[in-house]
Amino acid sequence: MKLYFAPRTRATRPRWLLEELKIPYELVRVDPAQPPPELQTLNPFGEVPVLVDDSVTLFESASICLYLADRHPEKGLAPAPHAPERGAYYQWLLFAERTLEPLALELRRGGPLAEPERKRLDDVLTVVERALGDREVLVGSAFTAADLVMASLLHMLVHAGALESRPRLVDYVKRHTSRPALRSAMS
Description:
By secondary structure, this protein is of the alpha+beta class.
């Protein structure tokens, strides 16, 4: 298994998940300004992340996370395919990628959000807080790939100062970003 990776990109999520899984993989560090020629054949945009696993080649952070969690069900990073929590697991992982990420990236770029985007971000964060309730994870009773993706995006918002009035979400981020697998992925 091989992961094409660059720090501080969406590739951090699949690398974190690989570390959670504790499986062997080859890490190919990529300079986004000068990607290796083979990356263009693996991803039409020549971007990271790309995962190559035997005959399977995937790009897009969420698809790689879903694939890896399913490929190793014994690690418990996804609810079983027919478990009642499976639908919510898909929902929250994709909600993070599709709904939260564009707003987080806009804040990360340093630009102030326009009023409609500020309202949307507030609504999105309220939805996440309500989903968590008093639980430590989004789905079921254990950390999943959905928590990994959500925590990574909320982490951006912590650094942008957007969660100062939401201690519940800050606690969620701190708990999950302090996991040893993320520290390994960041090294």
